[in-house]
Amino acid sequence: MSEVGMEKFDAIIVGAGPAGSAAGTLLARAGMNVLLVERGQTPGSKNVSGGLIYTKTINEIFPEFWSSAPVERAITNHQIVMLGEASSVAMDFRSEAAAQPPYNAFSVLRASFDPWMAKQAEDAGASLITGVTVDALKMENGRVIGIQAGPDELLADVVVIAEGTAGLLLKQAGLRSESLPHDVSLGIKEVIALPENVIQERFQCTPETGMAYTLVGHTCGIEGGGFLYTNKSSLSVGVVAKIDSIYQSKMHPHEILDAFKAHPLMTRLLEGGEVVEYSAQTVHRGGVHLASRLYGDGYVVTGSAARLVLNNVVTLRGMDFAIISAVEAAKAVLAARENGSYNAADLAGYETLLKQTSIYKDWQTFKDTYPLLENKRLFDLYPDLACNVMERLFTPTTQPSPKVFSALRAEMAALQAQRQEKVSLLTLMKDMFQIARGMVL
Question: Cis peptide leading into 102, omega within 30 of 0?
Answer without folding.
Answer: yes
